[in-house]
Specification:
By secondary structure, the chain is α/β, with parallel strands linked by helices. The chain is 31% helix and 22% strand. Helix 3 packs across helix 4 and helix 4 crosses helix 6. The protein is globular and about 70 Å long. It binds iron/sulfur cluster (SF4). The site of iron/sulfur cluster has 12 residues, from loops.
């Protein structure tokens, strides 16, 4: 049984310009002990999906899904109380906005101590010191050396990078079953990024923590994730094992992302332009009909005004009328 099972999740936002589908028919399966990467450009709906999983929906959202299950429990019908019992202990999240995720009126230390686990049987007079020890240990693990200073500070006194590390420490201290990490290393320097990814990988290997790693940096995700889900403008483009997607991407969007990965070995002329996909992600109020990649897609044809359904090929899924690298689609490919 998968740990996280999402089928046809749609989120409609009620905006002054009418209703828009920010996420449309998203399906995702995360197995126990897996690290899955969710990749897409800014505005593709990755964070909305994460918030829908943990139940942080806004009043103007309408969330519908055929299935939204965590560890066999239905998150759609769960009461707020039941959901709160899951959060922190079984599901933890690292948010994209680290400073805003802390209470500005309390120091970081007191918020860390609240969630630190204490071994069973610890007498109540030793719990505080035990929690403090745990907090210092986890802060050290995420790369904070001046732990006392950080714990005595308020979130607004720390840099974004320090807040992000403190939030990661909070999220992983309880070794949750599922960790959702939304851009967990955005504000960090390169050496600390590698340390955080190694730590997450270690948690996954030693404690069997399943991780949904959300990022726009495909390069990092391909290095650490067993499986990948590529999302474009609120629709799933492709999903499957990372190695297979890297070797033979089916979807034109995935293929373009992989083709434009930075290559340190390649000689590039001074001041030459970076290779990117032409155009930009459309605004939600002006979505193209059918496949949302249509206006930017090098393979688009008349048929693409109909939204492609998710097709299955062994352990891979993709949504495209004219996919690359499929033997059965040779005819279609040869037309481009
Ligand atoms: S369905 Fe058409 S527009 Fe969409 S990705 Fe495939 S070829 Fe491109």
């Amino acid at each position: 049984m998968p740990l996280l099972d999402i089928r046809n999740l749609t989120i409609e936002l009620n905006t002054p310009h009418g209703k828009v589908k920010a996420l449309e028919r998203i399906s995702l399966t995360l197995n126990v002990g897996e690290i899955q990467g969710l990749v897409g450009e800014s505005g593709s709906g990755r964070s909305l999906l994460a918030k829908a999983i943990i139940g942080l929906s806004e009043p103007n959202w309408t969330v519908n899904a055929d299935r939204l299950m965590f560890d066999g429990k239905n998150l759609m019908t769960m009461s707020n109380r039941e959901r709160r019992a899951l959060m922190g202990k079984h599901i933890a999240m690292v948010f994209q906005d680290p400073t805003g995720s802390f209470d500005p009126a309390n120091d970081v230390g007191s918020q860390l101590l609240e969630v630190m686990p204490v071994p069973k049987g610890t007498p109540f007079w030793r719990r505080h010191s035990e929690r403090k020890k745990q907090a210092e240990k986890w802060l050290h693990k995420v790369g904070i050396k001046n732990t006392k200073e950080v714990m005595d500070s308020y979130a607004w006194e720390l840099s974004d990078g320090e807040c992000q590390k403190a939030m990661i420490a909070m999220a992983i201290a309880n070794k949750p079953q599922l960790l959702i990490a939304d851009e967990p290393t955005t504000n960090m320097e390169a050496s600390t990024r590698a340390q955080i990814f190694r730590l997450l990988n270690q948690l996954n290997q030693l404690q069997n923590v399943s991780i949904l790693l959300i990022s726009h940096e495909l390069e990092n995700l391909t290095k650490w994730c067993n499986t990948l889900t590529v999302i474009y403008c609120g629709q799933i483009a492709e999903s499957g094992p990372t190695s297979k997607i890297m070797e033979k991407p089916f979807h034109p969007y995935t293929r373009t992302l992989l083709a434009h990965l930075p290559n340190a070995e390649q000689q590039v002329a001074h001041k030459s332009m970076m290779q990117t996909m032409p155009g930009s992600i459309p605004a939600l109020q002006h979505l193209p009909i059918g496949c949302r990649l249509g206006p930017r897609c090098p393979k688009a044809e008349r048929k693409c005004v109909n939204q492609p359904l998710i097709a299955k090929d062994k352990d891979r899924n993709f949504a495209c009328h004219f996919p690359f690298n499929r033997e059965t689609d040779n005819d279609a490919n040869s037309r481009s």
